[in-house]
Model the fold of this input.
Amino acid sequence: MSAKIIDGKAFAATVREKVAGHVAKLKEEHNITPGLAVVLVGEDPASEVYVRNKGKQTVEAGMNSFEHKLPAETSEADLLALIDRLNNDPAVHGILVQLPLPGHLDSDLVINSIEPSKDVDGFHISNVGLLGTGQKSMVPCTPLGCLMMLRDHLGNLSGLNAVVVGRSNIVGKPMAQLLLGDSCTVTIAHSRTKDLPEVCRRADILVAAVGRPEMIPGDWVKPGATVIDVGINRIERDGKNKLVGDVEFASAAEVAGAITPVPGGVGPMTIACLLANTVTACCRAHGLSEPDGLTA
Ligand code: NDP
Done:
């Protein structure tokens, strides 16, 4: 193996430390405690685990965590009324509605009812537009975490060829916008892309956000490239359950300059960036300077 392993777990710990430091400063100097409200509708077990982890890490960073667990049959009107209350609650600086929502609820309508300045997931249409036009916005957590790791590892990204495989609204598209913002030459690939191996081989930065276990082998990777594997896929191997990424780690690590592992790469950065976004939203709400290095 020749690649440097980018340790997302350790990096996320440094982000959380920075967040906690800034929270302590906000409390001490301004008597303000940032607050994050998380709304969960229904009993999806995976979502319950995510929400629990988010709440725990929010409190560990010194912030207030407000959890709202609603039954699966909650009406759209009741959910929108709760969001309206949170939008108007000065103790709440960030609002996150855990996705996916039960089928009878219109996710776009619900997400777009969040006050954009409190939309710490960065999914509101206003934030999507602001990011797309290079203006100050709330940035989706997973791509923000990827950008932080890339800047930390590579320094200046200007002029590098970046290929993002995947064009979803939550990962692929915002990732491409962020890389463009850092002056990369960006290609977005997807299921209809012709000769994907050749497209990937041109990448100095290769971001895989597909959701297909180990789809990208080492011989699609340019020697020395930095590989960010966003994929989280549960597979069974040798009779055991295992988590793997979208990149075939062993063969890619022979060729890449640096690579994120799965687990322990991008995953831990996502919640760390949610905390970072909550502090950023709190500072903006109070007209205070934002912490360095926690935004795009
Ligand atoms: P989506 O399913 O929304 O998007 C997948 C994208 O991959 C689509 O744009 C699709 O193309 C593209 N794709 C599918 N098959 C191929 C193929 N054979 N060749 C090229 N492109 C292909 O997934 P998400 O963006 O939500 O998530 C991607 C992965 O990242 C998943 O494994 C998910 O679990 C993980 N994830 C991890 C997070 C973390 O915290 N680490 C957070 C969010 C997601 P098309 O549009 O043409 O269909």
Observations:
- The longest strand covers residues 35-41.
- The chain has a mean pLDDT of 97.
